[in-house]
Amino acid sequence: MEPITSTTILFSLFFLFIVATLLTTLALKKKKDLLMQKLMDANDFFDQIREELKELQEKHEKDKQFHKRLSVAELTTHLQKPRLSAQTSPVHTSTPEKYRLVYTLTRKNMHIDEIASFLSISIQEAQQLVTLSKLVQ
C-alpha cells in the first residue's frame, strides 16, 4: 500500500469541496425554482384579486348611481304628492281652464311650441302641462 501523501490529501479535499459546492448549487437551484413558482402563483392570485376588485368597484359605482336616481325619484314623488292629492281632492272638482285647454289642444295633435305660444306660457311649462294631461288620459 502506498503512503498517503499531501498531494493525495489535497486532491481529496479539493474533490470533496467540488462535490459540496455542486450539492449546494443544486439545493439552491431547487430552492430558487420553488420560490419562483410561489412568486408566479402569488402573481396569479393578485391578478385574480385585482380583477375581482375592479368588478366590485364597477358594481359599487352602478349601485351608487341607482341609489342616487332612487333618491331623486323619491324626492320627486314626495314633492308631487300634494299636487296629485290636490288634483284628486273632492273639494277641487273643477279643472282649471289652462289644463282643459292643454288637454283639448293635445288631443288635436297641436305641438308643444304652438300650445306654449297659444297660452302665452314657456315651452317648459307647456311640456309639463302636456305630460300631466297625458297622465289624466
Helix-strand blueprint:
Blueprint: H1 6-88, H2 97-107, H3 112-119, H4 123-136
Helix pairs in contact: 2-4, 3-4
The total count of helices amounts to 4
* Radius of gyration using CA atoms only: 43 Å
What is the helix/strand order? HHHH
SSE class:
mainly alpha
Overall shape: it is rod-shaped
Helix content: over 70%
Notes on the protein architecture:
- This protein is mostly helical and 137 residues long.
- Among the domains are: 53-92; 94-137.
- It contains 4 helices and no strands.
- It has helices at 6-88, 97-107, 112-119, 123-136.
- The longest helix has 83 residues, at 6-88.
- Mean pLDDT is 85; it is low at 89-93.
Structure summarized in a few sentences:
This protein has 137 residues and is an all-alpha fold. It is 85% helix and 0% strand.
List keywords for this structure.
mainly alpha; 4 helices; rod-shaped
